[in-house]
């Protein structure tokens, strides 16, 4: 039997599929900082709402730290792997403070975050089906945490 070669742009896992759907869904309206958001840096201001959606779909905990002077959120998956789909917003070598686990209730205690989360969640649900039918690569796969840790 001949091996079937997988198309290089197909999602390699649920995390890759989710990452692709998120990347297709990020927009000015879902950014914490819509004035600073641009198509050149679509992950800008998307960390809290992205981390919430990853938690919805993959489980785990939410992590928070100061990154280059900004509050930043990402995920700790049930397998103890950290997944940060928005780290690219800070460039190649951001300085990261000590991470703390934060509750979902805390992240959703901000009305603006709730609105952005609901909008992004709806966009991801729509785009996730498109990604399954027409997958694309998300910058070489999911972003694993590779920050330089700095104590604050």
Describe the structure.
The chain has one domain. It has helices at residues 14-25, 47-58, 104-107, 111-133; strands at residues 61-67, 70-76, 82-83, 95-96, 100-102, 148-149. It is built from four helices and six strands; from the N terminus they run ααβββββααβ. 34% of the residues lie in helices and 15% in strands. The radius of gyration is 15 Å and the shape is globular. It is of the alpha+beta class and 152 residues long.
Count of beta strands: 6
Strand order of the largest sheet: 3-2-1-5
Distance between the termini: 57 Å
The average pLDDT is 82
Stretches where pLDDT falls below 50 for ≥5 residues? Answer: 1-12, 133-152
Largest sheet: 4 strands, antiparallel
Quickly count the helices.
4
Order of helices and strands: HHEEEEEHHE
* Total domains: 1
Task: Name the beta content range.
Answer: 15-25%
Helix content: 25-40%
What Rg is obtained from the alpha carbons, in whole angstroms? Answer: 15 Å
């Amino acid at each position: 039997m001949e091996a079937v070669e997988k198309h290089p742009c197909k999602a390699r896992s649920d995390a890759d599929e989710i990452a692709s759907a998120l990347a297709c869904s990020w927009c000015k309206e879902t950014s914490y900082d819509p004035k600073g958001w641009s198509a050149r840096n679509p992950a800008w201001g998307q960390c809290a709402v992205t981390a919430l959606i990853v938690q919805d779909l993959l489980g785990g905990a939410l992590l928070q730290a100061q990154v280059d002077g900004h509050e930043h959120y990402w995920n700790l998956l049930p397998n103890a792997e950290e997944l940060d789909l928005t780290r690219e917003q800070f460039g190649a070598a951001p300085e990261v403070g000590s991470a703390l686990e934060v509750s979902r209730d805390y992240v959703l205690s901000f009305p603006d975050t709730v609105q952005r989360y609901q909008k992004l969640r709806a966009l991801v649900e729509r785009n996730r089906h498109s990604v399954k039918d027409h997958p694309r690569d998300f910058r070489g796969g999911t972003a694993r945490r590779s920050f330089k840790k700095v104590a604050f």
